[in-house]
Write a structure and sequence with these properties.
By secondary structure, the chain is an alpha/beta fold. The chain has a single domain, classed as Inosine-uridine Nucleoside N-ribohydrolase, Chain A, CATH 3.90.245.10. It contains 13 helices and eleven strands. The strands form two sheets. The chain has a nine-stranded mixed sheet with strand order 3-2-1-4-5-6-11-9-10, sandwiched between helices. Strands 7-8 form a two-stranded antiparallel sheet. The two termini are 19 Å apart. Bound molecules: beta-D-ribofuranose and calcium ion.
Amino acid sequence: MTIIIDTDPGIDDAIAILYALRHPAQDVVALTTVAGNIGLSVTTFNAGRIAALAGVPTPVHAGAAAPLDKEASPELGIHGNDGLGGVHFPEPLSPPASQDAVAAMIEILAAHPPKTVDLFCLGPLTNLALLLKRAPESAQRIRRVIAMGGAVDEPGNVGPKAEFNIAHDPHAAAAVLAANLPVTLIPLDATRQFRADVGYITALRETGAECAKASADLIDAYFATTDGAESRPLHDPCVPLLARHPELFTLETRLLDVDLATGALVDGPHPIKVAMGVDADGLRAALLKGLSC
Ligand code: BDR
Ligand code: CA
């Protein structure tokens, strides 16, 4: 499985990336970054730090510094001023690549047979929308896009119906939904069912593995930003987990669009595969195992 991870790390992005980088069957050929949880220079630096912790020299390509048609609005309250909740990570193994995210996507997609590269989207969809604009034929070579984003029947997390990744760049999300790509969306409806509690943090630490211990620290930091919560949702790890364990998700096809004013998902003309349910125990076990090696 050849994979590009497009990301805005981000506490839960970091856990998702550690899982994917350590998974023997997931060949992550590039990390591309986008402004989202925090500004682009920090998400790019963080992607390099996360790869260094995983001990993998995955190239990092910086992408869009701002949404297509609005101001960036970072999520410092949850992810902290460094985007990773103040958790210690090593310095990147090398500086970011000089090639930008979209150019890297085009080159990787051209170098592989059509429909053999997956794109995992863990942040706002700005880079994918730019790829669709710059090289639509290249985007059509993607085997599948798995993206965390949106709220279908659930309330949103940045508005009554709006979820952060879609609302941060609604124009990009609308372009992606309209592009007739093989997109699977994992909205809050599914990710809120996959939660980590204190017992899970302990189990991660007890593995003694670096990636699991860093993930425990990240989830601890995630707890620090809420009062009295007994568990926290693991949004972005659902993306690589869906790729490896589709049997742990329930998928439906919904007709969707994006409301550009609010960033909410609304009824629309685009048939999109959406994860609406999860086997949470199965996901917790799979993530623990993946982070333990
Ligand atoms: C999404 O928003 C970000 O804050 C998280 O990293 C995740 O990708 C959840 O709404
Ligand atoms: Ca994210």
